[in-house]
Amino acid sequence: MENRFSYILVGAFVFVLLIGGVLSILWLGHYSDEGTFKFYKVATKESVSGLNEKAPVKLRGVQIGEVRTITINPKNAEEVLVTIRVQDDAPIKEDTYAVIEAQGITGLSFIQLQGGANEAKELKTSGKVEEYGIIYSRPSTFSRLDKTITSLSTKAEMIFERAERIMSEKNVKNLEIIIENSAKIAESTSKTMANIEAHNKEINQLLTEATAAVKAVKDMSYSFSTAVDTTGVSMMNNVSKASQSITNVMGGLNQKLEKGSFDVDILFRENLMPLHQTLQELQVLLNETQGFVSNLKDSPSDLLFKEETIQPAPNER
Amino acid sequence: MKPILLAICTLLMLSGCSVKETSLKPYNYTLEPMLKLKHASVSNQDVLKVAYIDAPSGLNSRAILYKKDGAMQPYKYGTWSETPPLKLQHLITEALMDQHHFSSVISGTSMASNNLVLEPVLQNFEEVFREDGTSYVHVSLRFRIVEIKNGNVLGSIKLSSKQEVTNTSGATGTVEAFNVATAEVIHDLATWINEVRK
């Protein structure tokens, strides 16, 4: 009898516990639905992997709601629409934006609402699904990091590719030649600089002399200017008079030339032709003198004793 | 007084030492080819100047030259009255003038204007003795006719003549042969120049 009672008691306890558990689950489930809420749609073009229904929605780190549905925008295949439910008193402004962020290392994500200045207007929403207010998302930190890394990677790849091209065998060889030539140029420049330094003293001396010369020229110019000022006028008058005299002489000469009394051609012919004849005779005389001198050279005593005589021709004997 | 006497004595001594050759004075011969060219059938308006004849210095003397054993020697008892180049220039001028082919033919010393120049070059004017004692004269000249206006050489020719010396009585026979040879050369020149400048 005692055992039967205890079994009934245990069974009743377990039953009550089970009913209590179910009730507490129902109570807890209905608890979160208590209060008033408003709905928005978060539009994002990022991947929403890791974001599940009931995932928290936080505003500046404070949980204010949860994700209700996640769908692809039927009008835009590139866009995902996440319906969120937030507390009615949560300040969702027109400049509020959403960021999908990861929850630690679990792989789960949540929606972080940011922005929303005090002076901004409240984002309007409605109870109808079609008229929910839309909160646009911005790339998450991870996404930005991913994009940045991808971009950096692409650029690095490009740089490496170009570097590989630049550092081709041919270019390396050319670079070697350039470096070698640069070394030669540097050496040459060094020598030139040494020479310039060596000649610096002479250049300085030359510059000094040039400065002195310029000064002398300046002084001379001043003297010349003074001379022109003082004596130049009278000199120019004299030159003018001389020029007038020459003009007169040339005029007279021209008149004579026009009259034919001073024909250069005739004068030239009259004097040159007899001269030409005289020169011919002089040439003959020179030839004979040359022969005479030649004979005298061979036999100087002929001048007095005339030992050498011309032999008669074969038909003169 | 003493220096004067000394000078007179010295002069007498020197004149006594000097030798005056008592031989014949050389005769002067003139080149006279006695040339008579025919009158040209056609004439032109050209004025031709015969330039002074260019000659080697050996030929530009009054000596009558002969060549024996390759050596040039002068005749002892005969000389030209004028140098052969000068005489030849006059002979050529006169001969071409008498031909009346050109409007006028003038010598190198003339003041007249001319449009043509005849430039002769005397190359040979000597007697050549052979080994057997016989001889011939050789007269050779090159002629160029030049138009003054543009300096063009219209023609060039070498004319020569060799004549045997038949009269062997000294330079006289040689001069006769020279006259014949010269006449032949001038005749050939006239024929050629009439063809070059018609």
What radius of gyration of chain B results from the CA coordinates? 22 Å
- Name the CATH homologous superfamily of chain B: ABC-type transport auxiliary lipoprotein component
The biggest beta sheet of chain B reads: 8 strands, mixed
Q: Spans of chain B of 5+ residues with little confidence (pLDDT < 50)?
A: none
Reading the helices and strands of chain B in chain order gives HEEEEHEEEEH
Rg over C-alpha atoms of chain A, rounded to the nearest angstrom: 63 Å
Residue windows where pLDDT falls under 50 for at least 5 positions of chain A: none
What overall form of chain B do the CA principal axes indicate?
globular
Q: Tally the helices of chain B: what do you get?
A: 3
- State the helical fraction of chain B: 25-40%
Task: Summarize this structure as a short list of keywords or feature phrases.
heterodimer; A: 317 residues; alpha/beta; seven-stranded mixed sheet; 5 helices; 15% strand; elongated; B: 198 residues; Rossmann fold; eight-stranded mixed sheet; 8 strands; 29% helix; 33% strand
Textual characterization of the structure:
Chain A has 317 residues and is of the alpha/beta class. Chain A is built from 5 helices and 7 strands. Chain B has helices at residues 2-17, 84-99, 171-196, and strands spanning 27-29, 47-50, 63-68, 71-80, 104-107, 116-129, 135-147, 153-164. Chain B is an alpha/beta fold. The model of chain B has no long low-confidence stretch (mean pLDDT 87). Chain B has a single domain, classed as Rossmann fold (3-Layer(aba) Sandwich). In chain B, strands 1, 2, 3, 4, 5, 6, 7 and 8 form an 8-stranded mixed β-sheet that branches. Chain B is built from 3 helices and 8 strands. At the A-B interface, α4 of A face β4 and α3 of B.
